[in-house]
Design goal:
The complex is a heterotrimer of chains A (233), B (326) and C (285).
Chain A (H helix, E strand, L loop, with lengths): L1 E10 L2 E11 L3 E6 L6 H8 L5 E8 L2 E2 L5 H6 L2 E4 L11 H11 L8 H7 L1 H5 L10 H14 L4 E5 L7 H18 L2 E5 L3 H7 L2 E6 L2 E7 H6 L2 H7 L2
Parallel strand pairs in A: 3-8, 3-9, 6-7, 7-8
Antiparallel strand pairs in A: 1-2, 1-4, 4-5, 9-10
Chain B lengths: L1 H19 L2 H26 L8 H15 L10 H24 L7 H19 L30 H24 L1 H11 L1 H6 L4 H27 L9 H14 L4 H22 L2 H16 L6 H17 L1
Chain C lengths: L3 H28 L6 H17 L4 H22 L8 H23 L13 E4 L2 E4 H23 L1 H11 L1 H6 L4 H23 L9 H16 L5 H20 L2 H18 L12
Antiparallel strand pairs in C: 1-2
Helix pairs in contact in C: 1-5, 1-8, 1-9, 1-10, 2-3, 2-4, 2-8, 2-9, 3-8, 5-6, 5-8, 6-8, 9-10, 9-11, 10-11
The chains are: A alpha/beta (233), B mainly alpha (326), C mainly alpha (285).
Chain lengths: 233, 326, 285
Amino acid sequence: MLEIKNLVSGYGEATVLKELNCTIAPGGVSAIMGRNGMGKTTLLKTIMGLVRAQSGEIFFNAVPIHSLPTHQIAHKKLGYVPQGREVFDKLTVLENLRLSALGSSKENLQLLPQIYEWFPVLQERSSQKAGTLSGGQQQMLAIARTLIGRPEIILLDEPSEGIQPSIVHEIATRLKKIALSTGLTILLVEQNVDMVMTMADHIHFMENGEIRETVGKEELRNSDEKLRTYLSV
Amino acid sequence: MKNNLFIIFTFALLAVMPLILSDYWTGQLNYYLIYGLFALSLSLVWGYGGILCFGQAIFFGIGAYVMAVSTKGMLSPVPANFYLGLSLACMAAAAFAALLGSFLFAGKGINGPYLAIITLAIAMVLERLMSNWYALGGYNGLLDIPPINLGLFSYDLEIWDSRPAFYILWSIVFCITLLLGWLVKSDFGSLLIALRTNPERLTYFGFSPLQIKLKVFCLSAAIAGLAGALFVTLDGFASPTLIGFTLSTEVLIWVALGGKELLIAAFLGAIATRLAENWLSELFGDYWLLILGFLFMVSVVLFPKGLIATPIQAFLKRFNSNKNAA
Amino acid sequence: MDIIIPLVDASSYILILIMIALGLMIVFGMMGVINMAHGELFMIGAYVMVLCQSHNLPFWLGLVLAPIMVAFIGLLIETLLIRHIYQRPLDTILATWGLSIALKQAIVLVFGPEAQSVSAPVDESFSIGDFSYPIYRLFIMAASLFMIIATFWIFLKTDFGLMARAVIARPHTSETLGINTRRIYRWSFVFGTALAGLAGALIAPTISVDPQMGLGYLVPGFLSILVGGTGPLAGVLAGAGAIGGTNSLLSVWVSPVAAQIAVFILAIIIIRMRPSGLLGERDEK
């Protein structure tokens, strides 16, 4: 379980998150939605320690992680798929995957067959440079790279960005399946309504650095008034 | 004004020094004034212009050699004259800076660590070159350079004593410090801040970063050239060490220790380091350089703004907040 | 035959320069740290040999001790100095400059300012026909070639190298994968210093060892990485080849001074014309 209490964070003088509170229950997929600039990416970066919390606390499985360095947060089994994917373009697909095992435990390389089963295209391209993959394939690689570390939760930052809709849907359904079969928790930051509706069980709406409202998927399906309030420009 | 207060206070204090000090120490103080002037030139280009020049002695040395050659009458149709020599020295240094600057900064330009290494390499090349340029004395340098000569036309007024020399140097350095103090507070100073923090923004407003960089680089070179020229009138001797690597790094240490982003701190940094060297090198002997090296490291890590600038700025801050409170 | 000796000399100089430049490059390319004290670490490597000789320790033991001792000093430097200023690359120039002054002076205090000499373990020359060359100099070439290949192997083929290349390209992303970037930085720095120490030890018998010797190798080393480009490691080979080759050959054919001046001017022009170096292609970070 990921618990965030009174989190204040931002860049230098600028505060982006203002006393944010949020609890992500284990298992299932939670989504955070909100317009650009509302602090979604900052929230994920703060959880990973890439941006330092100015005050407040973050607990993962009741362990405080807000003052740990990033690599130790990763060792607590939090996986992170950054915005823009950030695969290592000069390294091969296999090297990208291997790297994640080196960061967690080399034994995790045994997961490779499983990963290839989930994302067969990565096996076909395993010796190619990651920079030569298409956007959707790079996104799969970024997700697969995180999964190699055997995380309990993965934080996904706008995985649909710059990827064609059919592939987005494919990634969404596959991730959902992985989450269901392995008990992995997914925290998804996304603006793509289709992806959220395909995957998420709960949706948190974020505005001005705070979680404003949390709704179940069914509730959202029945009225799109909420979407209009929080997403329309 | 508050910054100028520090400048005026410092120079007032300096002005009474020769009245108290012995001839020897007044003579030393004359050198310190010149080193201080040299430090000002580096503070301007580095602290205000954001150009880390590891070879500032290039310009000091050019000024020194031009002054030496011209006052020794080696540029035969050009008359040997103190004032003419000083202007030639400044102009030669500025011209070389303009040439070098337009080569290095044009286009995408070289900056940051690259510039540091390249200017360092240029200083080393020039030192090698001067050591092997036999017409200019080669390794042994040029001797018997005339002292400060205030005379006009054919009338000579050579200044051999350290006290009158002190007040002449004092006036020159004081004027330049005030001028620079005014300059960095002027519109040009604002452009320099923009150049350091947000060069792309400058172009939107129709300014050319290259032009601003060149201007500050040349001005700094001219001041360094002036310092070099005055130095040889005092020392009577111009050697390849004046253009080279060691002096370049020494001035860097003075300015970094004092505080590159505050003119008067850089100036005092030079004086304080030389003074400390004078005393402590006798006291500690060979350990002095070891201590200086460590001091420099500690100051860079813990007081990146400089050992002298940090307290001055803290003082100014308090002074300001008191005034606002009142 | 007149041309072979200068060519072999040039290759030998280039190989040593590559060892120095590789150390600088690892530290600069990875952490953005310019280590102005790198030349002094090279010098300390040579002084370890002086020390070994004066204690009648075998030469080969010195060659093993030098990189270890210099690596240890590198570890201290990293822990006490460099890691506090990773975020301020320009300040690393100044701080390591202070360190360089202190190290130089420390050596003066211990060994005196005068030049020392280390005698080579073998004096014989190797000759085929008219060609004759000191065996020890051939050994230097072989040893440095071996170390250069080993360095490339470490950075291109091992897991450590994989992590190091990832950290250079995307430090934050590497952290989120659980890689301790600080540790990678530290051991890369130590490795670079060990290379410098070994280079100094190897070359000690062929030059006069004095406290000022570092600078004469530091600046060409830096010019090599600037000329070669800070992108791929292989840039160092091209850079050191260009700088070292020109310098060494012009010294023989013209004069050492003219050679140095020509090399510096050449380097500055290349760097100005191709800011990312001969082989450079800069990664966006």
